[in-house]
Please model this.
Amino acid sequence: MSKTANETKLLMAQIKNSILDYLTEELKINSDALKPYEGDNLLPDNTNDEVLKIREIEAVKLRDRIHELNRHIAVIKRMIPTGK
Model:
């Protein structure tokens, strides 16, 4: 394999790792943000129904973001060659 091909593979691997690092960081941020919504049973019994509804909507949004980030991470891991 030529030097240029090796350099290209190295650059692609570096870019892949950079993208995966960013997406993984975003995944952690969203997962951490979801944790408070998972404990709705800790809310007072007299919590307004509208508040509960808004909390569930936000939790659904966060779960969707987490799902999408996991999908993007999986695709990038499979899409870009690792040089093996």
